[in-house]
Please model this.
Amino acid sequence: MQEVLIFLVDTFFSLLFIVFLLRLLLQWARADFRNPLTQAVVKLSNWLIMPLRRALPPIGRVDTASVVALLVISLAKVGALALVRGLGVPGPLPWLLLAFIEIATSILWLYFIVIFVYGFLGMISPGTYSPALSILQSLCEPVLRPIRRTIPAIAGLDLSALWALISIQVLLILLRQLQSVLNSSLFSTVS
Model:
């Protein structure tokens, strides 16, 4: 029963986090907010962002309300999962570190999926338009453009998505190792 509860808590907070992360990334990428999919993300996240914006105005291009929402959701996820696992509430510093690792891991996984889908769609239907492809392009091009400048196309084949996916996987492995070290040191002292 505990595994089911862990799955449900993890899934709920992950989906919630993805909505708010997409909102922040689409703002940073200056995506088209007339796009119906972008409007759906905005509507799904307005319940928390709008009240936070009254207290936290944007700083330059950084939407502080979205950043705070992501941090709060991540802290809640780490705390809820620790409680469900029977580990108790972590201390403030480990809790914050685990939340930041959770944020970084979620961002990397989101980009892995988005770049994979963008590269796949670029291979099977180049030159077409759809609202989803527009969002994918807004999110992926800022990441892929520097890779294309460093590693040019080989025989007309753009391998920037492949190199981005390999790099993301390396970073995910490193984060997983760091999280494992933190979890073992944090929760071995709790027992």
User: Anything to note?
Assistant: Residues 92-124 form the longest helix (33 residues). Helices lie at 2-28, 36-55, 64-84, 92-124, 131-150, 160-190. The two ends are 22 Å apart (CA to CA).
